[in-house]
Amino acid sequence: MEELPLLHTKNGYYYGTEKRGVWWKRYWRGGWLARGNSEMWANSEGIFFRRYMTKRVMHIPIQDIINITTGSCHAGKWYGAPVIKIEWEKDGVKLVSGFTVSWSKEETNKWITAINNLLTIKS
Question: First CA to last CA across the chain, in angstroms?
Answer without folding.
Answer: 24
